[in-house]
């Protein structure tokens, strides 16, 4: 009996020692599950609203979180057949590609130059570039309108290609500067000792090592182009030239009538690829934003 009681006591002691760890694991799991549900709920809401019948949507007695009537594709039919949604997607993609190219061409060399420019002058110049990103677009769209009009780019997608780098380049330059500072100078100096020029060392050594930062610039730029509204509304007047951020609310909000199913369908189609892109490259994206925080 003593052996049994001793064994039982040992088991209770062992379980007692594991209990805090198990509680901590349950708490962590519950926190992550709550956070995951919180983040995924907007996508669930968009998905279920997209396929809900309009009578199911407007009836306040129905449960909004489930299908009370059979699902329907009428909302998608309205989106694709009664609006130029595909055209707006193509316009957004076209503008995004050109803005990404311009941003990379300007921000990557600028970030490298500021990272290698030592002394207080370099820091002051870097802060000045970043401060330009903080200027609200609502202040700049009036002078930009005069520039766009003088260049004859009104009601043209090229006006957006010209204007959008004004807020993508400063932030991306600051981002790339922090990333290049984390790359040891010894690496490029060793490449230059092997016969490379500084530009060659930058292009063949530094740029491949900075792929995470460059990928972050691409994702950030595309996201801003897809969600920007003020400039696109100011400079574009023809519906065939609209981007998604302007075309969808313009044609799916008619007076006090909201086509909620079609609106949510458009939001779902646009947001899912961006969310997948963020999740696929999450590690590199976080690395680019946290680089330089610890060495």
UniProtKB/TrEMBL annotation:
Compartments where found: Cell membrane
GO cellular component assignments: plasma membrane
Protein's GO biological process: transmembrane transport
Family: Belongs to the binding-protein-dependent transport system permease family.
Taxonomic lineage from the root: Bacteria, Pseudomonadati, Pseudomonadota, Betaproteobacteria, Burkholderiales
Record bears the keyword DNA damage: no
Presence of the UniProt keyword Iron in the record: no
Pfam families: BPD_transp_1
Protein name as annotated: Binding-protein-dependent transport systems inner membrane component
Gene3D superfamilies: MetI-like
Membrane spanning residue stretches: 24-47, 88-113, 125-145, 157-180, 201-225, 257-278
Domain ABC transmembrane type-1: 89-281
InterPro entries: BP-dep_ABC_trans_perm, MetI-like, MetI-like_sf
Keywords noted in UniProt: Cell membrane, Membrane, Transmembrane, Transmembrane helix, Transport
Main location: membrane
Topology in the lipid bilayer: Multi-pass membrane protein
């Amino acid at each position: 009996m003593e052996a049994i009681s001793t064994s039982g006591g040992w088991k209770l002691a062992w379980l007692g020692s594991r209990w805090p760890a198990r509680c901590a694991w349950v708490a962590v799991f519950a926190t992550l599950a709550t956070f995951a549900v919180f983040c995924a709920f907007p996508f669930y809401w968009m998905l279920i609203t997209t396929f809900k019948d309009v009578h199911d949507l407007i009836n306040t007695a129905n449960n909004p979180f489930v299908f009370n009537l059979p699902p329907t594709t009428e909302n998608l039919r309205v989106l694709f057949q009664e609006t130029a949604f595909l055209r707006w997607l193509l316009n957004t993609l076209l503008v995004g590609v050109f803005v990404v190219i311009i941003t990379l061409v300007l921000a990557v060399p600028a970030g490298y130059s500021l990272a290698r420019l030592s002394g207080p002058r370099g820091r002051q110049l870097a802060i000045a570039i970043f401060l330009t990103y903080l200027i609200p677009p609502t202040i700049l769209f009036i002078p930009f309108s005069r520039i766009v009009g003088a260049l004859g780019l009104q009601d043209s997608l090229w006006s957006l290609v010209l204007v959008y780098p004004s807020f993508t380049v400063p932030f991306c330059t600051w981002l790339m500067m922090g990333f290049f500072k984390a790359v040891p100078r010894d690496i490029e100096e060793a490449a230059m000792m092997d016969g490379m020029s500084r530009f060659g060392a930058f292009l063949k050594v530094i740029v491949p090592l900075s792929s995470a930062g460059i990928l972050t610039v691409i994702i950030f730029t595309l996201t801003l182009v897809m969600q920007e509204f003020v400039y696109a509304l100011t400079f574009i007047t023809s519906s065939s030239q609209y981007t998604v951020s302007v075309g969808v609310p313009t044609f799916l909000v008619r007076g006090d009538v909201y086509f909620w199913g079609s609106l949510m369908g458009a939001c779902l189609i646009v947001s899912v690829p961006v969310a997948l892109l963020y999740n696929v490259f999450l590690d590199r994206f976080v690395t680019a934003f946290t680089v330089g925080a610890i060495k």
